[in-house]
Amino acid sequence: MAKKPKNVTVLHGRRVITGSELRATFVEQDGTGDNPVRVRRRILHVVVLVLLVGMIAAAIVVALAIMNGQIKLPTAERSHAAASVCPAATYDYTPPEKINLNVYNSTSRPGLARSVADEFVARKFIVGTVANTTSSYRGVALVVSGAAGQSAAFSVQRNLPGSDYFQDGRTDTSVDVILANDYKELAKPELVDQTPGKLSCPREDRRIVDDSTSPVVPTAQPSTG
Fold this sequence. Notes:
Blueprint: E1 10-11, E2 14-15, H1 19-32, H2 36-67, H3 76-82, E3 100-105, H4 112-122, E4 126-132, E5 141-145, H5 150-159, E6 164-167, E7 175-179
Parallel strand pairs: 3-4, 3-7, 5-6
Antiparallel strand pairs: 1-2, 5-7
């Protein structure tokens, strides 16, 4: 009896893959790499990855710049201080004999308020209170008035160069002068500028680092100033 031809595609009970089938399989797998959907997905993944890396790098750069002081973030305090507190109106020079003036000494120099008050009187200012007071203000002098006394305060500042104007809530036209440690002298009478102008607030842009953002309300103390 003739033997059955040996089946070369089966070895030990397992099917043997032929060369033609193997080649066909690789060709099919290679073809899947060109699938447009998969290509788009790979491109999208690469783009997302690049964006994430870029955002992380940018965040690190900004954080380092803030730490080094190269970038300063605005704060609520700075935004508030940036608003102008100095009146913008232009004032005429008010004659001294129409100005009611109080003079206070916030320095440790005895008799300063009295001597300065006498100089104002000699210029025909109407001087009322002369006394000592306390203030944390650092500068030449404070000139303080209400809204109604701003023209008078302007005239006082022309006699007191370097002074800093502040407005308070009083309703009359009186003006307070609070002498501070940098005070030297009044302007010479013949050199006082009597042309129209504006109130002077030289420390306005520095008040953010000045702990005296407003003057201490003068309180007369038992002294001749």
